[in-house]
Amino acid sequence: MPGPVMDDAAALNLIREALCEVVPDQASRFAALGPETQIKDLGIDSIRIMEMLGNIEDRLGRTFAEDALSTARTLGHVVVLIKGRSGS
Question: pLDDT by residue (tens digit) across 21-64?
């Protein structure tokens, strides 16, 4: 059963919360992130990025398609994934 529809601000907040859980020592920096922020500019390695995405998937109760993850370049792209209904 799908969860409630999430707006951009709520999706971006979910990303920030997941980042703060994965890299708590950078929490204050993550507060200023926006949809235009490049994932490569987060200053965290690919393992932590996957942990962040796994955290989001757990909170949403669904997974993202791998091909969609591989093309995500900004946090705005991740917002689109969060708001979408694709995946299982």
Answer: 999 999 999 999 999 999 999 999 999 999 999 999 999 999 99
Residue 88 counted as domain residue: no
Give long-range contacts, CB 8 A cutoff, 24+ apart: 85-88: 85/2, 87/62, 87/63, 88/62, 88/63
3-state helix, strand, coil in the chain (%, to 5): 65, 0, 35
Domain limits for position 66: 8-83
CA dihedral for 34, 43, 23, 71, sign (positive or negative) = positive
Dist. CA 59–CA 24, nearest whole Å: 18
CATH number at residue 55: 1.10.1200.10
Q: Tell me if residue 33 falls in helix, strand or coil.
A: coil
Amino acid in the structure at residue 83: K
